[in-house]
Write a structure and sequence with these properties.
The protein is of the alpha/beta class and about 260 residues long. The chain has a single domain, classed as Rossmann fold. It has nine helices and twelve strands. It has a nine-stranded mixed beta sheet. Helix 7 packs across helix 8 and helix 8 packs across helix 9. The radius of gyration is 17 Å and the shape is globular. The two termini are about 35 Å apart. The protein binds S-adenosylmethionine (SAM). The site of S-adenosylmethionine has 20 residues, from helix 3 and strand 5.
């Protein structure tokens, strides 16, 4: 098997937290202006996860691209700070897990230090095997991590309230931005599901629309003009500026994004 460990570089971002640079994909895992700040904005605040944690008994999150595990650590942080007894099932997928050594060198800032994320992530990454890996993170939060390509994932029977769509960009990670992938996510979606991604590319939005998601634009993180939010019904997007989904579908079918 090829050794890809040397293709990963630890980089400090603008808010002091670290991210990784992937030589395989020639891209950072997060916005170099702030890994933690970007993740909080895109995946948690824009999707409404903190509010949902406060008022729900259970929420199910599905992430595409576990990467550094930052979103799991943030989910744990929001849950513990809320004092809520909401149970969180955190599902994620990862084709190229980092080594435990890399995981234990990540720094998500002093705010998250009390979670001892390095020890937790070091333990998770040290025990991964291909297929589904399950971890009881706390009494309230469970991690279900698929190790392998998304395309080979055996579908969980669960229905998800939140989709954190976080592959690399469509230019370099094309296979995770297709209508087929977004359709697979719909098959796992609860009626109130929201999909959020940092990506604002029309090609990505069109692929979502072709699959059946309604898409809208939201303000991006750290000065980025836009990101994308999607839902199964337009009524789920009342806080956002709805995109012209019919037009996106037409453009996709015309081959504008081939
Ligand atoms: C932008 S990074 C994810 C960042 C991550 N959410 C975090 O907070 O660190 C994208 C991730 O998707 C993974 N990935 C790329 N293609 C994949 C595929 N086909 N199936 C599963 N994971 C994939 C990469 O290895 C990488 O870890």
């Amino acid at each position: 098997m090829e050794d890809h460990a040397n293709e990963i570089e630890i980089v400090t971002t603008g808010d002091g937290s670290t991210t990784l640079y992937s030589g395989r994909f020639s891209q950072h895992y997060h916005n170099p202006n702030g890994a933690v700040a970007e993740s909080r904005h895109v995946f948690f605040k824009t999707a409404g996860v903190p509010g949902s944690i406060k008022k729900s008994e259970e929420i199910n999150i599905f992430e595409t691209g576990f990467g550094t595990g930052l979103n799991l650590i943030l989910a744990k942080d929001y849950l513990e700070r809320s004092g809520s007894t909401c149970r969180v099932q955190f599902f994620s997928t990862e084709a190229f897990p980092v080594t435990p050594d890399v995981a234990s060198e990540l720094d998500f800032g002093s705010e998250l230090e009390e979670h001892n994320p390095n020890a937790l992530l070091g333990k998770i990454f040290a025990s991964l095997k291909p297929g589904w890996n399950r971890f009881e993170i706390t009494g309230l939060i469970k991690l279900h991590l698929w190790v392998g390509p998304f395309s080979e994932m055996t579908l969980p029977g669960d229905k998800f309230n939140f989709f954190f769509h976080d592959p690399f960009s469509p230019e370099v990670n094309r296979e995770l931005w297709t209508p087929d992938v977004f359709q697979a996510l719909i098959a796992m979606a609860a009626d109130d599901a929201k999909l959020v991604t940092y990506c604002a590319a029309s090609s990505a939005r069109a692929a979502m629309a072709v699959a059946g998601w309604k898409t809208a634009r939201a303000t991006g993180a750290l000065g980025k003009r836009e990101m994308t939010v999607a839902s199964l019904a337009e009524s789920g997007l009342s806080k956002f500026k709805l995109l012209n989904n019919r037009r996106l579908i037409e453009r996709y079918k015309r081959g504008d994004f081939d």
